[in-house]
Amino acid sequence: MQAKKRLVAVVLILTALVAFNVVIGHLLPNQVLGAEEEVQQTPSTTNAPIPLLTDNPYIIADIAELASPATVFIYVEWPTPDQTQRRTIPQDPFSMFFDFWFNDPFFTPQPRSQTSAGSGFIIDESGIILTNQHVVGNQGENQTIKIVVDAPGLEREYEAEILGADSTLDLAVLRITNGNDHSFPTVPLGDSDSSRIGEWTIAIGNPYGQDFEHTVTVGVLSAKGREITIMSRETGTTQVYKNLMQTDAAINRGNSGGPLLNIKGEVIGINTAVHSQAQGIGFAIPINVAKDVLDELITTGGVKHELEPRAWVGIYYGNLDDSVAKQLRIPDEKGVIIMDVVQGSPADEAGLQPWDLLRRIDNQDIYELDDVIEIMSNHAPGDEVLFTIYREGQVHLITVTLGNMPAHLRQ
Q1: Class of domain 311-409 as given by CATH
Q2: pLDDT, tens digit, for every residue of 107-118?
Q3: Superfamily in which the 192-287 domain is placed by CATH
Q4: Which residues contact 244 (CB under 8 A, 6 or more apart)?
């Protein structure tokens, strides 16, 4: 009887063990799988990839396709100077020295028309264009402005007029002569203040003329708040531009006035200059600067700047070296050569002429350009100064009443 009870107990235990194994066999894989799934669903906190800006590989092409029709080519021609004018503005700061050796320095060359070209972009469907002032000049210069539009159904050349311009900011607003009431494509204006260093930038323009119209280059916003000094090829004067945006998107001659866009397709800058001694360094005017003065440019034709009075003569001059002194038959190298005289300036009204040799101002001898700059810095508009001039073998004493330097000539 005892043996039978033990046998029943063993059978029950074995049956319980088999049942337990069956249950574990069913439950264990699900639990392990669930644990594996949980591990796979847990994000890794190390070496996580940086999310891409966009999944669209054609985002640049899309932006260019939208902005290009609103980007225009600008061609400007000034009238031929009057034959009676005794001076012409050199196209190159060294042209006076070049002409000196091959022409009579006192002979006025035949006048010729002056031209310039650049880019711009349409900001209003009525045909309002933003560009650089150095591309189109100022109002009242009798220049002819041609705008080439390359938008579907509008592909042709238009005339335009200047609504407003400011050389200090290098901004100009044009209006296309729109007799047929065309609706032109536009490009939206962004917020340059919110732009970030390192973000993508896209430049569109016409480098080296219409043959390379709508050239698209890409880079990043390299820096903000840059300050550069640029010398005008036409006048030889310098202009300081502040708070510029720097980009490594290729900007070449002819890109001036074209849009600098962000990855949203918004204009954040107006391309204006490229560093002559570096590669991959271009500059643009922040679009917020233009937005702040846009209404003033359109309604008043300019921008009012609060400027301190500064003594102004109205001459462009160069240092006198031994070679030029011998050509002019001057016994020494004392003085500076007056290369050009601004029409309507104090120098012009006093009778100063190109190729006059400025030897003294009041009782101070002049040897180089810095001497003139230092003396002028100690004078104010309205002061009278005595210029000692050597002209064609004769000495002239000329009194000049100093004026106030115009805004577009200030550094």
Answers
A1: mainly beta
A2: 444 555 688 889
A3: Trypsin-like serine proteases (2.40.10.10)
A4: 225, 226, 227, 228, 272, 273, 283, 284, 285, 286
